[in-house]
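Repro:
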Amino acid sequence: MSAARLRRVAVLVLEGAKPLDVGIPAQVFTTRASMPYEVRLCGAAPGLVTGGDGLSYHVADGLDALAWADIVFVPGYRFPDREDLPQAVLDALITAHDRGARLAAISTGAFALAATGLLDGKRATTHWHYTRALAARYPLVKVDENVLFVDEGSMLTSAGAASGIDLCLHILRGDLGVAASNHAARRLVAAPYRSGGQAQYVPRSVPEPLGERFAATREWALHRLGQPLTLETLARQAAVSPRTFSRRFVDETGYTPMQWVMRARIDVARELLERSERSVEQIAADVGLGTGANLRLHFHRLLGTTPSEYRRTFAQGE
């Protein structure tokens, strides 16, 4: 990977902070030689912060860390719909955003971002248990209860703790490329990529859980991206009808089967552009897109850039 500038990450630990929500960004963006991030945990003031679920945190930094950070994570916290945050916290978040920092909420951390007014008119999500409360308390926020995370550019929100991993990997992909994100996912033993548009797993009456129903089929397809893959081929591998496969695949992934295949092909192309010197034509053949023109078309449609520009940005060894 070409030399990447150091990005500064502040994790804002509020009273009642949830342990998993605090730990996820701290671990994904952990300060290490292979990751161009520096992470600081902070609070409304330095010292002891009483967390949720019986844990407390000792943070070395106060709100001054938000003036230092390029990305500010707000982990979920208890009773977000009942208690107001200190105005100093809200002011520090607004100031950080105004000078260009990205604000990212995990779970109920979305309430803190909404309280700043910065989410007014924007899409956002939170844990499914609190989506109605978020919409009721902040009616100008476009609350989407059926997604894992929402990226509104400088404002990002996610659902429960596990989707916080998805959001962090999504940010990492945008910052450093797919190879770095996949490496982090392997280190975490997490799914390399789940669509932000995938539905949250909320309680409902269904005959069987859908979460991993077609995981084996997706794995099978990932090893055959260079071959023709049709809806009928995938459904046959999953031993269900094409209609059933298509409907339930969307429930699982947030994509139609063919959208998912295309994104998987583009992801492999991205990694080949980052890690190899193969030509665009060769990569297009490798990932099942046939020609360089076809790869360029879909690459630009999904990522808004060209394979050549992407390689210049993320190529390793430069």
